[in-house]
Amino acid sequence: MIKMVVFDMAGTTIDENNVVYKTLQKAINEAGFDFTLDQVLAQGAGKEKFQAIKSILATYADNTDEQLASEIYGKFVVHLRDAYANIEIFPQNNAVTLFDALNEKGVLTVLNTGYNKETAESLIDKLGWEKGHTFDGLVTATDVGKNRPNPDMIWLAMEQFGITDAAEVVKVGDSIIDIEEGQNAGCALSVGITTGAHTKAQLESANPDAIIDDLLELLPLLDK
């Protein structure tokens, strides 16, 4: 029996028009690079953002300078704060409808993210979502020692709600690393969704249990 679904935020349950990765691209390219948004998404999607910067630099520029990555991250945080102050964000299609349906089934809804807690909470506040009402829990990259694809965020969510068996948990996300996180946690299902960072073909490369195009498509999967 499924007791909890852990959802990624941006691209999965929240539609913010890729502003995070556009901002990440801007911060990196200001340091003298010329990476495309597709490159940033391919290597950065779903990761804690400092790690994302390091991955992008190492993959496309063979650059492992930690100090440079740290400086870029500092600029990214400032740029992102400014961006979020001035943009509208929206729930992903059918997100709240799905949360309500899961609540009726007695299934917990937990959000997890590669953002830090401040950024995640600012997004949630903008949407008017309330912990304990719209959703049940939030785990962010700054709550754990190891980030995706390590399973620590999912395990922390399980601990917070007294769940001891990952076979009672489902993970849903829009990136390869989300799927890997669910697999590494031992989740009953690791589900990709095509509404965000990675294409269906990219998601398929991680061998998810299912790929969906809309959040409501998750419900019949839980009933199987």
| Global structural class | alpha/beta
Measure the end-to-end span.
10 Å
- The fraction of residues assigned to DSSP E strands is 5-15%
Assigned CATH architecture of the largest domain: 3-Layer(aba) Sandwich
Determine the fraction of residues in helical runs and give it as a percent range.
40-55%
How would you describe this structure to a colleague?
It is built from ten helices and eight strands. The chain has about 220 residues and is an alpha/beta fold. It folds into two domains: about 5-15 and about 90-224, HAD superfamily/HAD-like (Rossmann fold), CATH 3.40.50; about 20-85, DNA polymerase, domain 1 (Orthogonal Bundle). The strands form two sheets. Strands 5-4-1-6-7-8 form a six-stranded parallel sheet. The protein has a two-stranded antiparallel ribbon with strand order 2-3. Helix 6 (about 115-125) links the parallel strand 4 (about 110-115) and strand 5 (about 135-140). Helix 1 crosses helix 2 (about 35-45), helix 2 packs across helix 3 and helix 3 packs across helix 4. The radius of gyration is 17 Å and the shape is globular. The model has no long low-confidence stretch (mean pLDDT about 95). It comes from Mucilaginibacter dorajii. InterPro entries: HAD-like_hydrolase_sf, HAD-like_sf, HAD-SF_hydro_IA, HAD_sf, PGP-like_dom2, PhnX-like. This is Phosphonatase-like hydrolase. Pfam families: Hydrolase.
